């Protein structure tokens, strides 16, 4: 800790950069005097914060905070304060009644990518051991699952950046496909110093700072990657010695992209051939280069194949596993990386193990003190789980921790209807989010600077979240809540202490892909983070896991041939425009936290629809007018923002407010079960027009 600071050295509550910050309360200065200042010692931000980080203290002291459990006396009655015993008794009784009537799988759990590693781990264990349900998944399915599946398939391991973030500064060229980091995580930009190529349908803040902007049509990222790969191979940029020494499967990929000549890629994507060639030239002639994907390329019904094609391009250029070069994905949520490693996914056990792997089941069951045969198998993926709620054969009860699906799920109007059909909805949150407002029982929980725990940032660096302040009276931590509930359900032995849970997580992860066995709180503090895998306490951690070999059976990365397919929903006469969604600087995810911070609300007060001037002229609208946007799934109204930054055929809407995701398409990727958030067909009109 800097001698200038007396506060706790911790990390931002929001995104996956996990910027280091001090949180300080002046002694005797009252509740409002909490300050946030940036840390210099954390490589991700090196003393920088964005607006969200600078204003995060208001989350701790603002009036929007829940400080007492709430429950309804009857389904259509108001939420009223109750005691903790009453609230937890209601949850336990409701769970028991549903499971006795409908079976164990009739109660489901929905987690979040912002939960600490300890909470993500304990939630998975709670579902499988205390509830004995297979029905658990989390909102990271909406965020990271396509890149995770593609990286696992190619490299045998999914770690967002398989190199320290500081390596990026040495990359002479960077292709960023579908990421707007200048807005979503501004301190990240300081690490991009080479020629930047941005692939995005919009001229975003990031695209404006790029050497080259590939302004592709929404939903055509896969065609773009295939076209770039074709050029790389046919125009002499393929790194043949690297391909021979470190990969398998190249010939199949060479054959599969043979017909993706540049003119075809231009016709599908709208990106001029000259720009495609220039992008490959920049990447192919750089001594060091990196390809990064973000949600723009990943949140599609073909997201896994799209990321695979970008990985194939990186492998053809000889980038992954080479010092200063590589492929990485930009994890979004605060613990988007750790959140997908410890068992809150439908198909997964701790250590990034598959739940259908018998050896993994035996190992984890041993740590949990249960019979492996007692562990449920895989459950439904996030959207499929939400879609099944309250249906015959679907869950009748749902426990939500750290998520707000009423705002963040695709086809959210339908999802809200499914939540309303439940017999029991329980939400643990720090504010009354849109989802909490629908609950039968609301449990007020602690937040970032009020708790200990670990977060794993987008580099795979495990970080320490230190408690800076005592939580307000009446609030409990999620670990304590899970321990209390488990005991009420006849499964004692769940600890509410983060350190105890982390030690158990280390044992459960030992030998897995994400091996935390050698990581301790003391080490993290002493080393300002430890990169997994770290299988023993004397292991240095693994900042660059692919340098010598890939963690595949033969040590080689795998090329995988993939085919193009169009968006699940194309534009037509009835719905003639593409809708694409994304984030703005001053808001974060579903906005449950940031919409309650005054300065952020002033900067970004509500939803808007960005329209091309040509479309605006046809509609007769100007910036500031209201427009109504409709898809086959729902409608919403927003303020028009007329801008030449958007394509003439596309509308952009940020998704931080309820209503926008009523429009989006839940068509799922067949492998990752990622919904197609990033493109659907819509029509738009003035609200008063017929
Ligand atoms: Fe850093 Fe992200 Fe927090 Fe902004 S929101 S301060 S970029 S961690």
TrEMBL record:
* Annotated GO biological process: respiratory electron transport chain
Q: Where is the 4Fe-4S Mo/W bis-MGD-type domain?
A: 5-64
Where does it sit, as one GO cellular component term? membrane
**Keyword annotations from UniProtKB, A to Z:** 4Fe-4S, Iron, Iron-sulfur, Metal-binding
Task: State the SMART domains in the record.
Answer: Molybdop_Fe4S4
InterPro entries tied to this protein: Asp_de-COase-like_dom_sf, MoPterin_dinucl-bd_dom, Mopterin_OxRdtase, Mopterin_OxRdtase_4Fe-4S_dom, Prok_molybdopt-oxidoreductase
One Pfam family matching this protein: Molydop_binding
Give the protein's recorded name: Nitrite reductase
**Native organism taxonomy:** Bacteria, Bacillati, Actinomycetota, Actinomycetes, Streptosporangiales
């Amino acid at each position: 800790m800097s001698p200038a600071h007396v506060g706790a050295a911790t990390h931002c509550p929001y995104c996956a950069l996990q910027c280091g910050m001090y949180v300080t309360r002046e002694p005797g200065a009252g509740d409002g005097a909490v300050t946030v200042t940036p840390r210099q010692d954390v490589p991700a931000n090196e003393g920088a914060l964005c607006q969200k980080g600078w204003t995060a203290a208001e989350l701790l002291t603002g009036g929007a905070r829940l400080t007492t459990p709430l429950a309804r006396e009857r389904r259509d009655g108001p939420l009223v304060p109750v005691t903790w015993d009453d609230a937890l008794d209601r949850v336990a009784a409701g769970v028991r009644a549903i499971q006795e009537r409908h079976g164990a799988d009739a109660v489901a759990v929905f987690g979040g990518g912002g939960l600490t590693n300890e909470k993500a781990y304990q939630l998975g264990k709670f579902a499988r051991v205390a509830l004995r349900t297979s029905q658990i998944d989390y909102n990271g399915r909406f965020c990271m699952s396509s890149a995770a599946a593609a990286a696992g398939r190619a490299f045998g391991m999914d770690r967002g950046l398989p190199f320290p973030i500081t390596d990026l500064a040495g990359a002479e060229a960077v292709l960023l496909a579908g990421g707007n980091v200048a807005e979503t995580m501004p301190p990240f930009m300081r690490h991009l110093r080479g020629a930047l190529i941005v692939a995005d349908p919009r001229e975003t803040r990031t695209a404006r700072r790029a050497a080259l902007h590939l302004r592709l049509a929404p939903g055509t990222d896969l065609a773009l990657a295939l076209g770039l790969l074709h050029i790389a191979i046919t125009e002499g940029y393929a790194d043949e010695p690297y391909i021979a020494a470190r990969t398998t499967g190249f010939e199949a990929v060479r054959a599969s992209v043979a017909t993706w000549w540049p003119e075809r890629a231009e016709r599908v994507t709208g990106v001029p051939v000259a720009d495609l060639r220039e992008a490959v030239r920049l990447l192919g002639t750089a001594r060091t280069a990196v390809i990064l994907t973000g949600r723009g390329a990943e949140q599609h019904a073909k997201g896994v194949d799209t990321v695979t094609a970008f990985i194939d391009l990186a492998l053809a250029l000889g980038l992954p596993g080479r010092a200063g070069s590589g492929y990485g994905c930009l994890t979004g949520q605060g613990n988007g990386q750790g959140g997908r490693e410890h068992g809150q996914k439908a198909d997964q056990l701790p250590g990034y193990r598959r739940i259908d792997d018998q050896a993994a089941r035996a190992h984890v069951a041993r740590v949990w003190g249960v019979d492996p045969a007692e562990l449920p198998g895989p459950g439904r993926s996030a959207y499929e789980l939400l879609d099944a709620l309250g249906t015959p054969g679907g869950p009748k009860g749902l426990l939500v921790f750290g998520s707000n699906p009423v705002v963040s799920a695709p086809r959210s109007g339908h999802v809200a209807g499914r939540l309303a059909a439940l017999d029991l909805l329980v939400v643990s949150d720090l504010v009354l989010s849109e989802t909490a407002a629908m609950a039968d029982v609301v449990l007020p929980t602690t937040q970032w600077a009020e708790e200990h725990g670990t977060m794993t940032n987008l580099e795979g660096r495990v970080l320490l979240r230190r408690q800076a302040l005592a939580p307000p009276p009446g609030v409990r931590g999620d670990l304590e809540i899970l321990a209390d509930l488990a005991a009420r359900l006849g499964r004692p032995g769940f600890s509410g202490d983060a350190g105890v849970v982390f030690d158990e997580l280390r044992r459960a992860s030992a030998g897995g892909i994400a091996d935390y066995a050698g990581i301790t709180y003391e080490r993290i503090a002493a080393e300002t983070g430890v990169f997994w895998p770290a299988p023993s306490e004397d292991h240095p951690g693994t900042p660059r896991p692919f340098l010598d070999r890939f963690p595949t059976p033969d040590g080689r990365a795998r090329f995988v041939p993939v085919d193009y397919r169009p968006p699940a929903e194309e534009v037509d006469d009835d719905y003639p425009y593409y809708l694409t969604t994304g984030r703005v600087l001053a808001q974060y995810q579903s906005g449950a936290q940031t919409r309650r911070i005054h300065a952020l609300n002033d900067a970004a007060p509500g939803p808007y629809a960005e329209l091309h001037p040509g479309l605006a002229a046809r509609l007769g609208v100007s910036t500031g007018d209201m427009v109504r946007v409709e898809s086959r799934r729902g409608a919403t109204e927003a303020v028009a923002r007329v801008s030449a930054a958007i394509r003439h055929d596309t509308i952009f809407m940020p998704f931080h407010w309820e209503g926008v995701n009523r429009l989006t398409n839940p068509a799922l990727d067949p492998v990752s079960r990622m919904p197609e958030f990033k493109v659907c067909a819509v029509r738009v009109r003035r609200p008063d027009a017929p």
